[in-house]
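Why does residue order matter? Because the sequence determines the fold. Keep that principle in mind as you read this record.
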Amino acid sequence: MEEETVYINPKQFDRILKRRTTRDKLGWEARRVRKAYDHESRHNHAMRRPRGPRGRFLTAEELATQK
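Structure:
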């Protein structure tokens, strides 16, 4: 396969190289690890909200028709 030339902003090139070296130092596994959620309070609020049959949040209209 031929590699296509990728044009980048020359002002950003140093930062791109620095980011690449940082990623290489971390290793593949360290980059793949992610927390389930970032904010505990937002997670708790979402867990209390009513949901529809497929798991999506119900709108105010849908809640009114249920009651």
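The radius of gyration is 22 Å.
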